[in-house]
Amino acid sequence: MERDIHPAVTDAADDIAEMEIRGAATIADAAAAALGEQAEASEAETPEAFRTEIRTAARELHETRPTAVSLPNALRYVLRGMRGETVSELRASVIEGVVEFRRELDHAQDNLGQIGANRLRDGDTIMTHCHSTDALSCVRHALEDGKEISAIVKETRPRKQGHITAKQLRDWDVPVTLIVDNAARRYLDDTDHVLVGADSIAADGSVINKVGTSGLAVNARERGVPIMVAAQTLKFHPGTMTGHTVEIEMRDEAEILPDDEREEIGDVTVENPAFDVTPPRYVDAIVTERGQFPPESVVTLMRELFGDYHASEPWER
């Protein structure tokens, strides 16, 4: 019989689904931590009951945000390290896996930032879209290297995650110009780099990121502005090596059209995709903790990371 799920898991799942926890690395960290709390609190009496409990918790977390591949990659990391013949051994392996994953996550973003900072020159102006801790790590390290950076920040509707980016940059004393999304093309002539993060990277080098990224990349390429994607390898989607297409999350229509406004407009269909896909031809470099790569090289790195990937997931067994 399946055991009760620990409140830490249900709370994390709710916060991820409602975007109280956002950002791929933050989501992954929260999911791993929740699995660790499930393991620590487990009262399972047999190894099989413990495995079932952990997999059930992982399934609940996995179902929250289908596009952010950092979430299932975090779950894969922890569950594939779960081993032992007793409940005590299984518990210890899960907790150890969580600690290792969170430690690697911290180091990965720092290493990525150092690599990405090398692409930014003193006096550069960057344009950002949405909020990415990986992208901001590149800016932070450039600042620590003594470079002066300014930013044009798209507010990123409908949830205005660009406001979070603007606040962080201002905390670092970076000059910020906040613009509405539709003004991006106008300001690209004042931009040296477009710097964005990613929620998933497909095997062909396609970048799945906050909706609006693709249009920005097309406009930037037409203007001759290089596009740098900052993404830990945690964002690589191993399922795309088997022909899987990344599922695009559809958000609540009320984010776009609240009920009171709907009454005024009338009967219309509302669609609210959270992400879009930027083809690799519009991306100049994907910067990871393992180095910077042209998009067409991603499949080679992905094979090194995930080997002979199979679609069967550890939480489904």
Automatic annotation (TrEMBL):
Molecular function per GO: ribose 1,5-bisphosphate isomerase activity; S-methyl-5-thioribose-1-phosphate isomerase activity
Catalytic class of the enzyme: isomerase
An annotated GO BP: pentose catabolic process
Annotated residues for binding of substrate: 22-25, 65, 209-210, 235
Keyword set, alphabetical order: Carbohydrate metabolism, Isomerase
Coiled coil: none
Enzyme Commission number: 5.3.1.29
Catalytic activity: alpha-D-ribose 1,5-bisphosphate = D-ribulose 1,5-bisphosphate
One Pfam family cited in the UniProt record for this chain: IF-2B
UniProt-listed InterPro entries: IF-2B-related, IF_2B-like_C, Initiation_fac_2B_a/b/d, M1Pi_N, NagB/RpiA_transferase-like, R15Pi
Annotated catalytic residues: 130 (proton acceptor), 199 (proton donor)
Similarity comment text for this entry: Belongs to the eIF-2B alpha/beta/delta subunits family. R15P isomerase subfamily.
Described purpose of this protein according to its UniProt entry: Catalyzes the isomerization of ribose 1,5-bisphosphate (R15P) to ribulose 1,5-bisphosphate (RuBP).
Note: Reaction proceeds via a cis-phosphoenolate intermediate.
Protein name in UniProt: Ribose 1,5-bisphosphate isomerase
Species: Haladaptatus litoreus
